[in-house]
């Protein structure tokens, strides 16, 4: 199973200017016993954050919104090194090749309309 997390807060300047509501997104890979959030820091630097289900509830209290994808989504190691933004990182995680989705808002709308 995979979870896509969306946030309205970011420390980056460019998303503050270009993005309306959601300004950051991150994929969360779920295994049987643990969760791993892949956090985009900068080009070529992706942080892996170990999480627990309790952490999801804490993030939700701080304004994060979660989209749960199907339980049949494969969880495997991806090539995240070449991702140039948080949206590109998330699109690589869910194996999406739509070039018109470049902001977290647009990705959220695309995932929730299905």
Tell me briefly what this model is.
The chain is of the alpha+beta class. It is built from four helices and five strands.
Topology readout:
Layout: E1 2-7, H1 13-18, E2 24-30, E3 35-42, E4 45-51, H2 53-61, E5 65-68, H3 86-93, H4 104-113
Could you characterize what this model shows?
Helices cover 29% and strands 28% of the residues. The chain has four helices and five strands, in the order E-H-E-E-E-H-E-H-H. It has helices spanning 13-18, 53-61, 86-93, 104-113, and strands spanning 2-7, 24-30, 35-42, 45-51, 65-68. The model has no long low-confidence stretch (mean pLDDT 84).
Structural class: alpha+beta
Whole-angstrom Rg = 13 Å
Taken as a percent bin, the fraction of beta residues is: 25-35%
Number of strands: 5
Mean pLDDT: 84
Name the helicity range.
25-40%
Task: Measure the end-to-end span.
Answer: 17 Å
Order of helices and strands: EHEEEHEHH
Globally, the shape reads globular
Largest sheet entry: 5 strands, antiparallel
Low-confidence stretches: none
Q: Counting H and I runs of at least 4 residues, what is the number of helices?
A: 4
| Lateral strand order in the biggest sheet | 4-3-2-1-5
């Amino acid at each position: 199973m995979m979870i896509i997390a969306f946030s309205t807060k970011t420390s980056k300047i460019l998303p503050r200017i270009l993005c309306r509501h959601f300004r950051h997104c991150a994929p969360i890979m779920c295994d049987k016993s643990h969760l791993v959030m892949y956090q985009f820091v900068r080009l070529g630097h992706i942080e892996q954050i170990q999480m627990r289900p309790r952490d999801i509830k804490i993030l939700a209290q701080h304004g994060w919104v979660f989209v749960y994808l199907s339980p049949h989504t494969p969880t495997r190691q991806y090539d995240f090194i070449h991702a140039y933004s948080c949206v590109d990182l998330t699109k690589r995680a869910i194996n999406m090749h739509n070039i018109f989705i470049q902001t977290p808002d647009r990705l959220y709308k695309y995932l929730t309309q299905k």
